[in-house]
Design brief:
Keywords: Cytoplasm, DNA-binding, Phosphoprotein, Transcription, Transcription regulation, Two-component regulatory system. About 65% of the residues lie in helices and about 10% in strands. It is of the alpha/beta class and about 350 residues long. It folds into 3 domains: about 110 residues, Response regulator (Rossmann fold); about 110 residues, no CATH class; about 110 residues, Arc Repressor Mutant, subunit A (Orthogonal Bundle). It is elongated and about 115 Å long.
Amino acid sequence: MYTVLIADDERMVRMNLRTMIERDSEGFRVVSEAKDGEQALQQCIEHEPDLVITDIRMPGIEGLELIRRLSEHRLNPEYLIISGHSDFQYAQSALRYGVADYMLKPIDPSYFLSAMSNINTKIHSKSLKRQSSKEWIWAWKVHAEQTAKALWHLNYTSLETELEWTRSTIGSNDSKVKPEMVERLEYFLIVMEGALQELNSNGLPLPKVQVPENAATARELFDSFNNGLLDLIEYIRSSRNWWGYNRLLKGVQEYIEQNYIDSELSLKDTAEHFELSPNYFGNLFKKEAGMSFNQYLTQLRMEKAKEYLLDPMTRLYEVGEEVGYKDYAYFSKSFKKHTGFSPSEYRKYENIEDYESV
């Protein structure tokens, strides 16, 4: 149901209009009545009606002034103007304000209902356009945010997925660039930049990806966009300089030291903690540490286990739990594979060594 506000200084006119709307006109309901322009302005601001039916002349604020004031408040209802014979030419000028229709008093019921039907169709069309606009904005917003995450986390797989969506949406052929597509791409980049800044807690200065001004075809538009994103991801990767100076590796080592007791600790969890994709993180870790993440974690756990085994008051199964193993049998197997001794053999051997050295 679309909402209607009636503004007229004649009470009987307001009553007749309400009766025709609620009894004979489909798809509308009256939400308010106003007896002068000032009251109509305030009630329009409050109710934001879909349709305003207003007399051309009213005390205080007249009909056309009411329309102008409402536009200043960014309200955009449909308008139906009512006028007397003496105001006919004045009412015609209202068409310049985008008024849907105007009619003379006394109101012809059949003409009024026909006008209301046309206005219903017009409002419905506007509603569909607004809905379509919202759906467009939402889709591009979601993909812009996902692209920002892929860039920041250096997730090439996700980035390729987002680029494919953009390619299919923009087009990659030689068709002429549509102005609305340039507008959408500009919106995409604004959202993406904002999302990147939220992820960029360290304040890394990031270059902007620009929409090309002179792209003639969809292919040129996408290629420029694609190259901009690839340059940006390379800039993010190289600018961090974490691995070259072992800064990230040191941070990872500290993180593993603090969390190795967690049996669920994994490469994926650690990569997410440092805001990197698992594949990228795993490759870089192996390059810098000389071993895989799991090998490094196992080696650390085994070294910690040796320390615990030197304490005869710590039970063997407790040693496994202290270094992230819930299953003692699995811990014992891993320990023997790493050291050549079972936990009990290692404890016995080390204790004899300590005793003989005294």
